[in-house]
Design a protein that fits this description.
The chain has 609 residues and is an alpha/beta fold. 33% of the residues lie in helices and 24% in strands. The strands form five sheets. Strands 1, 2, 3, 4, 6, 7, 8, 9 and 12 form a nine-stranded mixed beta sheet that branches. Strands 13, 14, 15, 16, 17, 26, 27, 28 and 29 form a nine-stranded mixed beta sheet that branches. Strand 10 and strand 11 form a beta hairpin. The termini are far apart.
Length: 609
């Protein structure tokens, strides 16, 4: 009996030891799990080293623990909090512009709950042991890069500098400080984007390279008209002339072209993203490219191509009848179409059975000639011309009907004096443009009346008030004159006074449509005065001045006028303008800029009045 009792107590004792051992083992296991979670918490140490972040082995262990907790029906919140609090470290290269860095930081804070930013890093290898690293750097844009963001930088000079373009190789030689490229003039680099050039060309060792803010660049270039600067596209101002970048002796890349290539433009740069966690890296890249496409956003850009005299008569009409209606525009049609708004000042009404090729100064055009206006992409027709009613106002009525049928807007003339004063309004890519103008010169039979069609007659008080009203409503006003004709490059003194009056009223652009010979310019506080653009389609071959012409490419960005490029043309075969070659262009622009009014000239300088 005693033996049975002894066996019974022995068994109970073994059971007790087994239970005790199980409790101790469970307690030890729980402590190990808690220790593992706490040691993996990145919030406990903000320094950047290989012990600060969980490695792949720890991450795997955490997943196993989470699975065990699920299987045991435990609370999942602790594990979720661990994942949410994991730091994402974003290293931003010292070459990244500040405005780009600000966007990246904002987007990263919206994406990641726990993010650390490290500014000014040059070498990703210093931190490549972490598994939650995103490195942000700058690179040149080209077709081989995986980027859909672009920082566009423009070479600029003084508005009155006759220089029209620059070779990218010349810019690079200055940046590289190559001996043969020591410039006599300064190259200013915007402080905002100077790091980009230091990334690719090293520290600036050329004493002629000066890093300044945009306001200082504008002032320095104003005082030193031959100097050049490199600034971001969205910092462009009317006082600065944007230079095309020449890629060969004949071709150049205009940053204002509608077929502008972000990948092929020589001064196009992109932000790159790389990292050890591809998912997080892609998330940040995608988020950034949603926020920032380019500082040259095509959805904020509007280009207006303004032209001079169009008169489809005499020699022009004869060539059109023999060589085709579109023959006059065949060499410049692409240039005229390269914009959002193409302006044509057609001074002649269409008339059935018109002998358009006859000599003299009483004009009409054949209705079929409207095909030329369609061919060049006309959007708006100016009706301030002083030959609209040569055969009577009824033909202008029919002409306006033709414009309506084609969807052309028109201004500066109309079916009666009231309608003739109406502006032509555009709202493209957020840029509000208003065209308005009148016929200053006459003759009186050309002016619209209460009952008859015609050009808008002079009425300065009304137009000054209308300019102010349009400006108050957010419009950039383009005001045009049909003024007294003058075959000089420098404008008449009375013309200067009248054009300035409209500029001072608030017009962004004031343009003379009367000139059969191009005239100089004047930059004003409100914008630009073009005293005359010369002939576009006309048969005046009697002098070099009447053969020369200008297409003015006025540029608006984010509803602000940012500058103008001038495209010189020269007429051949009594009707057909072509682009000037490099030598012709250089000589012509030198004349035009010397005939312009700037702070260095008085109104009487170079005047032939």
């Amino acid at each position: 009996m005693s033996r049975i009792i002894f066996k019974y107590f022995t068994l109970l004792f073994l059971v007790f030891l087994l239970i005790l051992f199980s409790l101790i083992f469970s307690s030890v296991l729980t402590s190990c799990v808690n220790f593992k979670i706490n040691s993996a918490d990145p919030a406990s140490n903000s320094s950047i080293n290989e012990n600060s972040y969980p490695n792949s082995e720890n991450a795997s262990d955490n997943n196993e623990i989470a699975n065990e907790e699920k299987e045991n029906d435990k609370d999942e919140s602790a594990t979720q909090n661990l994942l949410d609090s994991k730091k994402v470290t974003i290293c931003i290269s010292k070459f990244i512009p500040n405005f780009i860095s600000a966007i990246i930081k904002r987007d990263a804070k919206n994406l990641f709950e726990n993010v650390l930013f490290v500014d000014g890093y040059e070498n990703v290898n210093e931190m490549d042991k972490t598994d939650e690293l995103i490195y942000v750097d700058i690179m040149k844009s080209n077709s081989s890069v995986d980027a859909n963001n672009f920082i566009i930088i423009c070479p600029v000079t003084n508005f009155y500098n006759s220089k029209d373009e620059i070779k990218i190789s010349d810019i690079e030689m200055i940046l590289k400080n190559e001996a043969q490229s020591q410039p006599q003039n300064n190259l200013y680099v915007s402080q905002e984007i100077s790091g980009i050039f230091k990334k690719f060309y090293g520290q600036f060792e050329n004493d002629n390279i000066k890093v300044l803010d945009t306001n200082s660049i504008v002032q320095n270039i104003k005082n030193n008209p031959q100097d050049i600067a490199l600034i971001p596209f969205d910092s462009l101002r009317k006082e600065l002339k944007v230079l095309n970048i020449a890629s060969s002796d004949v071709d150049s890349n205009s940053v204002f072209s509608t077929d502008f290539s972000y990948l092929n433009y020589p001064l196009s740069f992109s932000v790159s993203f790389s990292g050890n966690n591809s998912e997080n890296t892609s998330m940040l890249k995608d988020k950034f490219e949603e926020s920032f496409y380019s500082n040259r956003d095509p959805e904020k850009l509007t280009v207006v191509n303004m032209t001079g005299v169009t008169a489809l008569v005499r020699g022009v009409a004869n060539r059109m009848d023999k060589k085709g209606v579109t023959y006059p525009a065949e060499k410049i049609a692409d240039v005229l179409r390269d914009g959002n708004i193409t302006h044509i000042s057609n001074e002649i009404s269409f008339k059935e059975n018109c002998n358009a090729g006859q000599s003299g100064t009483i004009f009409c055009s054949k209705p079929s000639y409207i095909e030329l206006l369609k061919f060049i992409g006309t959007d708006v027709v100016e009706l301030t011309g002083n030959h609209l009613n040569d055969y009577g106002p009824q033909f202008l009525v029919n002409t306006i009907k033709m414009y309506d049928e084609e969807g052309f807007k028109y201004f500066g003339g109309g079916l009666n004096v009231n309608l003739a004063k109406h502006p032509a309004l555009f709202d493209i890519n957020g840029n509000k443009i208003a065209f308005i103008g009148f016929n200053q010169f006459g003759p009186s039979y050309d002016w619209a009346t209460n009952t008859d069609a015609g050009s808008a007659p002079p009425d300065k008080p009304f137009y000054i008030s209308e300019i102010k009203r349009l400006k108050e409503n957010g419009y950039n006003v383009i005001f045009t004159f049909q003024y007294e004709e003058s075959y000089n490059y420098f404008p008449l003194k009375s013309q200067i006074n009248d054009f300035r009056e409209m500029s001072d009223a608030g017009a962004t652009i004031v343009s003379g449509s009367q000139a059969h010979q191009p005239m100089g310019f004047e930059l004003k506080n409100n914008g630009l005065i073009c005293y005359g653009l010369g002939n576009l389609f006309f048969d005046q071959m009697q002098s070099i001045g009447t053969r020369q012409g200008l297409i003015a490419k006025h540029v608006f960005y984010n509803n602000r006028y940012i500058g103008t490029q001038f495209i010189p043309t020269i007429i051949e075969d009594y009707c057909q303008p072509r682009l000037m070659n490099l030598e012709e262009k250089a000589n012509f622009l030198e004349i035009i800029y010397n005939s312009s009014i700037s702070i260095t000239k008085t109104d009487g300088d170079n005047a032939n009045t």
